[in-house]
Structure formats: C-alpha cells, structure tokens
Design brief:
This protein has 211 residues and is mainly α. The protein contains four helices and four strands, in the order βββααβαα. It is elongated and about 80 Å long.
Length: 211
Amino acid sequence: MIDYIITNRNIHPSQIIDVRAFRTADIGSDHRLVIAKFRVLAQQIKKPKPSIISKFNVEASQNESTKYLYENRLSEKLKNIEPTLTDSPDLQWEKIQECMVKAAEESLGKRTVNTNAFKKSTPWFTPEIKELAHEKRKAYIKYISKPSIEQRTEYTEVRNRVNSRLREIKEGYWESFTAHMENDIYGAQKKMWKLIRRTKKEVNEFNLIFL
C-alpha cells in the first residue's frame, strides 16, 4: 500500500502527524481514500461584516396568482406612458423601468439579504438525495465488512439505482432552472422590445401629422 501524499512548500515534513487509508469511504473506485493529519499555525479568521441589502422577492413569482397580479399591475402602468416628441430612447427606457419597479413593489414585495452570508453551492441537494446517499453508504459498509459475490451484487444494484436517481434529480433541477432563466431573459426582453417598437411607431406617426 502506498500512502504518500503531496504537499506544497509551506508545509514542512515535521508538521505531518499521521497518514492512513480510509476504507469506508464510498468513492466508487477500487482505490482507497488517503487521509493525512498535519499541524498548522492557527490564524485568526476575520468574519466578513454583514452586508444587508433589500431585494425583490422574485421567488413569489412562481405563484400563479402573484405572477398574474404583477402582469396586471405592469400592464396598467405601461398604458399610462405617453410618448412625446422630446422623449429619447433612454428616457423611454427609464419610464418602462420605473413601471416595472413599481409593479414589482406592489405585487412581489421585498426581502432583506445578507450578501456576505454563506451561499449554498448545491441547491439541488434535497432530503431525498441525502437519504439516497445514506442508503448507498450503508450497502457499501455492509459489503466491505463481509466481502462476497452476493454482497458485491447487492451493493452494485443499490449503487446503480441510487446514481441513476441522483442524475434524474440533478437534471430535473437544471432543466427547470434554465427554463426559468430563458423565460426571464428572453421572455421579458421580447415584451420590452415590443413595447419600445410600438412606442417608437406612435412617436413617428405623431411627427408625420405635424410635418
């Protein structure tokens, strides 16, 4: 068994306390996970100061009634936009943006967020996934405790079933995430450009009448 580890020059060999192979780690390989203990100088870690900001509660838009309320409020406010001869494209966009903000405030509401707080990097990790991981690890421990062809077959079946379900959950989450992103980016963009073109057309017609 080779239990060597690689470190950088900041760690002196005298700082290495122990190195061993961890047999019970289920990593889906015939190799063993190697764990090393080493001594380092303790340094005081400064926690970042909380940075509290106010954001729209966009999660509420997943509710159909809230989404319908936002669309109605936005539609009502956009109808009150009056194009004039002095309006530039930037000024028109500012008016549209103001309508969007007011409609969001009335329908979605706001919530406070700490931007320096720890952010979960695996949002797809659900209680079901945690239970599946526990089931696979339990089958693996059972197999390495009493290795046999039957135990190996049982562990392989559990591992394949669990891995297949994990892929389904992750793919389902990312499909839903990308669908919402596409709708937010392209769906709203399409509506805004349609409104801008209509507003521009009304201004041009107004110019032609008085030329």
